[in-house]
Amino acid sequence: MDRVSSKVLSLRRRLVITAGIVLLVFLGATGLVLDRSFVRSAHTAQQDRLDGYLFAMLASAEFNAEGMLVLPEPMPEPRLRRIDSGLIAFIVRDNDRMQWRSQSMLGMDVGDVSVVEAGLWRSSRLVDRGSTAFAARSFGVTWVADDESERAFTLTIAESERGVNAPIQEFRANLWAAFASVSLLLVALQGVVLSWGLRPLKGFAHEVQALEQGTRARMHDDYPAELAPLANNLNALLDRDEQQLARHRDALSDLAHSLKTPLALLATVRTDNHDTEKLLTQQIDNMNRIVEYQLTRARSAGPNPRTVRIELLPVAKKIGDALSRLYHDKAIDLALDVSAQDCVRVESGDLMEILGNVLDNAFKWAHSSVRVSMEESVIRIDDDGPGVPAGQREAVLRRGERADEQVPGHGIGLATVASIIAHYGGSISIEGNPSGGARILITFPT
Q: Quick one: how far is CA 105 from the chain centroid?
């Protein structure tokens, strides 16, 4: 199976990335909403708290002997008596002059302050010289003095923003830590779910690869509803392909057989002209060789997606035993250096045809020994015969060519073998071996 380009993301990676992005967007948006809600809630709570302090100030405020509006001791809120408590209060008269301040404001300067009209509320932000920021609430009142005169005052109470910012920062840290933990957990669960969900698709890919490698002949029919039609269609395609190959082989075989009878009749024809008869006989022999060649090709199944891997040893032993009986007078010693794990992805009939032709040539030319071995995907047949001259090695693999015209044969055996092997995308070559004989190398794709 061809490797998919590394630039193309796998389905699993696409789903993980997409789901991860959606998860981050969702959790991020949720976190922002929760953060904003908490911040608003914290500021609202602070404002309500300050308003409560203001109402307490209004309830306890009174004029002193100098006619100034002040808060009596003890103050209603203990924090107003402590320096650096984070809570301050002051009263401003209508002339923008601060006439009273809490003890907690000792040493502070919040800058210019202004009055608020009677009956109105104002929220503001104050910063003292120490760069401490305060959230302030002010309320304007009109006070009737003992002399029946009306005087305008603005009561202000402020709380350090640290009192709100600290809980907000703590909430944010806890919130994003929790979201990070939840995100990791969800990503892990997502990976498990995706692995489970994509398992049938992974199994489908493995089965297709097994079809290509020849370790199985059909797809399973127990896939989920989304994949079952594809598996069924693939099985139907394999069936149609096998039937079409069978029809082609049958048609070619029928054509070759239909030519054998006319050729046999022509072979019986005699003529008074010796040269004409010799030429006619040669051409009939050539046509017979072509017919035999085409018959052999018709019998060859060729590559098939449903071809399974078969063991080499049983086939080689069966052919070797038959040839040993055929050439019993030569007493050839056949050595099979092949293990039970050595397999090739070839139709059994084609493997019989290939080994039959090659071993027949080896037995025919060998003096005393023939050896069959296999290493990786290369089958090697050695004999101790005279060998094939280097200049003729390619020629004997072509149809009609023979290394020695004195040896019986039509010159199509190795050509047939080469044709069958080529159908499978393999190759055949001839070399010499250390004993001086021929070495046939047959290579099949893995």
A: 67
What are the DSSP E strand ranges found in 103-211?
121-127, 133-144, 150-160
> How many Å apart are CA 208 and CA 197, to the nearest integer?
19
What is the per-residue pLDDT for 402?
46
- Residue (of 423, 413, 424) closest to 446 by Cα position: 424
Long-range CB contacts for residues 386-390, cutoff 8 Å, separation at least 24: 386/436, 386/437, 387/432, 387/433, 387/436, 387/437, 387/438, 388/430, 388/432, 388/438, 390/432
Q: Check: CB of residue 101 under 8 Å from CB of residue 90.
A: yes
DSSP string, 71-101: PPSSPSSGGGGSTTSSEEEEEEETTS-EEEE
pLDDT in tens, 182-216: 888 988 888 888 888 888 888 888 888 877 776 77
Please name the residue that has the structure tokens 């401003």.
Answer: 92
Q: Both tokens of residue 374?
A: 């296999």
Per DSSP, the three-state class of 114 is coil
Tokens (6 digits) for 296? 């052999």
Q: Which positions ≥6 away from 215 have C-beta within 8 Å? A: 308, 309
| CA atoms of 13 and 10, how far apart (whole Å) | 5
Tens-place pLDDT, residues 44-73: 998 999 999 998 888 888 887 777 788 887
Q: What share of the chain is helix, strand, coil (3-state, %, to 5)?
A: 50, 20, 30
Burial grade of 432 (CB within 10 A; 0-12, 13-18, 19 or more): middle
DSSP letter for 118, please.
B
pLDDT for residue 411 is more than 50: no
Yes or no: say if 406 and 364 are a contact pair by the CB < 8 Å rule: no
Q: What average pLDDT does the segment 365-381 reach?
A: 92
Return the structure tokens found at 226: 């989304």
* CA distance linking residue 373 with residue 336, whole number of Å: 6
> 407 pLDDT exceeds 60?
no
Q: What DSSP designation does 345 have?
A: -
Which single residue is written with the structure tokens 């202004």? Answer: 114
Q: Quick one: which of 70, 47, 57, 59 has its CA closest to 121?
A: 47
